[in-house]
Specification:
This protein is an alpha/beta fold. The protein is built from 8 helices and 6 strands. Bound molecules: arginine. It comes from Amniculicola lignicola CBS 123094.
Amino acid sequence: MSAAPQIQPKFLPDRHDVGIVAVGFSGGQPKAGVDAAPMALIEAGLVQQLEEDLGLNVTFDGQVHSYSELLPADDPPHRNMKRPRFVSAVTQQVSDQVYQHAKEGRLVLTLGGDHSIGIGTVSGTARAIRERLGREIAVIWVDAHADLNTPETSESGNIHGMPVAFLTGLATEKQKDIFGWLEPHHLLSTKKLVYIGLRDIDKGEKVLLRQHGIKAFSMHDIDR
Ligand SMILES: NC(=[NH2+])NCCC[C@H](N)C(=O)O
């Protein structure tokens, strides 16, 4: 790794303080495999490199969380969502772990995992930043996918395609154990969201992007 950045970020008390959350979870979509990524990164020496090469102070509980204890006995689809209770319970835990770091002013690095985890990372950060700085967060979502499907627009029912809909309140659910735990302080404004790199958007997502005037730079824009 090269040298540590020298610029002190405006919204962090100390640029050296980093919190890591390792999430070995793949339940937001049907294929196993992405759950192995955090351990692979850690075994490759990520934490030492952050500490020794970049001189950062890393706070890490030393665990890759699989959250298997949160697996419900029964988790039938709800509004077309697959494994809704499990994904909800895991992302709620991730949200809290991220919040615990972010409220102390640490830059949070989450290692996943499938993209449903974004429900936890963004909501935990949004809550901490509202509390710590009295501001709304902004999100730059760099991805081929918008992950903006509501349960109703989704053609797959996979929750990894829905995180931004729940985070912006375009999708809501009353049931507490199915993302009903998301409160206003967890949410992100569509005005403070920008996409970079989109190349695979569903029909329903395209409608939502237009309806809400969400800023987006597709791969087509980048190639120009
Ligand atoms: N994070 C991802 N890999 N998302 C892929 C989503 C694919 C598709 N748009 C869906 O909703 O199922």
